[in-house]
Amino acid sequence: MxxxxxxxxxxxxxxxxxxxxxxxxxxxKGGKGGPTVLLHQICHNEIHAALTEAELARDxxxxxxxxxxxxxxxxxxxxGKRPPGFHSKTxxxxxxxx
Length: 98
Fold this sequence. Notes:
Blueprint: E1 19-23, E2 36-40, H1 41-50, H2 53-59, H3 63-68, H4 70-79
């Protein structure tokens, strides 16, 4: 069986890679029990560093929409050149929940 594909960066997620589930609509904005996607941890961190919970709920509730955000588009281009198991610290802090 092949490794799952990260819906943000479109790279495989090998079993040894840091990974996590992302609620497409944040739990605090009505997404509890809603759809989730499996992401590389670095991809998940970048999403939450770039966007607030309100922005995620309102404008970025699919992987396709997330990839259109300018910061995330640059991130996807950058991380796409790294191996599937790559992880590093995300620069900048996490965006505030609004």
